[in-house]
Amino acid sequence: MRTTTYLGLIFGVVIVYLAVVFKGGNYTIFTNYVALMIAVGGTFAATTLSSSRSTIVHALSAVNRMFVRTSAPPRLVVEELVQLARQAKARGASSIDPEQLGLRDPFLAKGLQLVVDGVEPQRIEDLLRLESDILSEKRRAAERMFRLMGTYSPMFGLVGTLIGLIQMLKGLTDPRAIGQGMSVALMATFYGVLLAGLFFLPLAGKVRTMDLDERLVRDQIVAGLLAIRLGENPENVRETLEVFSLKAGA
């Protein structure tokens, strides 16, 4: 997840840069701080105005998951659950100490605690399914926010264009003012469209993909924990969980 995110961003930036250089241009002429302030500042201001604090927190959490802290791959989840199934089969589920294991996935840790506490299988499934739905809704909120930013960004680029045109028309008698106004007008639109097409909308799509992947892993965890709770053989647990791995690779 993190590798493809960095690769996509780097590739996009390089393509834009090479497009400028190969046409004989100087990348410094594409630097205008006033236009950037209008496009970026306006986008973030409008997004903040239209979003709740919790939505912003969910978006920051999604960014952290995409760029910094990635989820455990399904195959590692399978190995963890099979190991837990072996321990539960040999010494009973009550012998497992979730805190001592130091599981980094809070969803798995919570579900395992329910198993250790002897909660009924149907109750475990209901609770974990509910939490999974809530986590998915948080990801969808983050996706909506990034799509909103992708909508606002070109709009504020147009705002910058209008500001530049107004400045240009007002200073028709001053050639320097005409150049400055035209620079702001064109660069603001450039920044707005570039941010939407290269950052905000792709991030929204990435959050959606991430949510689907995470939900599949959570379904895998639920199936594994229920199998452990029912005392199934570890190899049967592995076979059940590998079905999810095949689905993830499809």
Question: What is the strand and helix layout of this fold?
Answer:
Elements: H1 2-22, H2 33-50, H3 53-67, H4 74-91, H5 98-101, H6 106-116, H7 121-170, H8 175-229, H9 234-249
Helix pairs in contact: 2-7, 2-8, 3-7, 4-8, 4-9, 6-7, 6-8, 7-8, 8-9
Question: What's the quick description here?
Answer:
The protein has helices at residues 2-22, 33-50, 53-67, 74-91, 98-101, 106-116, 121-170, 175-229, 234-249. By secondary structure, it is mostly helical.
Features:
83% helix, 250 residues, 2 domains, mainly alpha, 0% strand
Percent of residues in helices comes to: over 70%
Number of domains: 2
The average pLDDT value, as a whole number, equals 85
> What would the principal axes of the Cα set say about the shape?
elongated
> What is the overall number of helices?
9
Structure description:
The chain is an all-alpha fold and 250 residues long. It has two domains: 1-28, no CATH class; 32-249, no CATH class. 83% of the residues lie in helices and 0% in strands. It contains nine helices and no strands. It has helices spanning 2-22, 33-50, 53-67, 74-91, 98-101, 106-116, 121-170, 175-229, 234-249. Helix 2 (33-50) crosses helix 8, helix 4 (74-91) packs parallel to helix 8 and helix 8 packs antiparallel against helix 9 (234-249). The chain is elongated. The two termini are 16 Å apart.
